[in-house]
Amino acid sequence: MSLRGVIAYVGVGSNLEEPLRQCRLAFQNLDTLNGTRILRTSSFYRTEPVGVMEQAPFINAVAEIRTELSARTLLGALKAIEQEMGRRESLRWGPRVIDLDILLYGQDIVQEEDLVIPHPEFHKRRFVLAPLCEIASYGIHPAFGISMQGLLSRLGDDYLGDVVKIQRADG
Question: Coil, strand, or helix at residue 30?
Fold first, then answer.
């Protein structure tokens, strides 16, 4: 792949069917997308569920990618990976084999019915910000003009839910 393309960040999460293995497989699948290469990945984090509490903890991580795909095409590719890996539509915030979300796509701001970038909730979620800060702490949120580290700091100690680094992605 050439040096063209956009730097984007993709959130990865799973809490079913060996979640750590599912997240590793998602990274592999992401790295095989045409015109897309993973540049860096965060460690894996064990996190408490949000919303539907009676489910297993999640494994979460973030991949920094360079992609020549448009945001809309990337979204379609992520949905295809999810389906390929066995994801079925289920309860919002419920258990899932894999969840892939575009967190950031360059400095673009997109507000469409089925595509919102930056991801509309990630600035409130320690399970996204902790791995994102590991690989892009000085990155700036395009809508808020605040660094990822600044967003994480704003969550403070009142945020519910543990986020524990468990393993490097390459380890």
Answer: helix
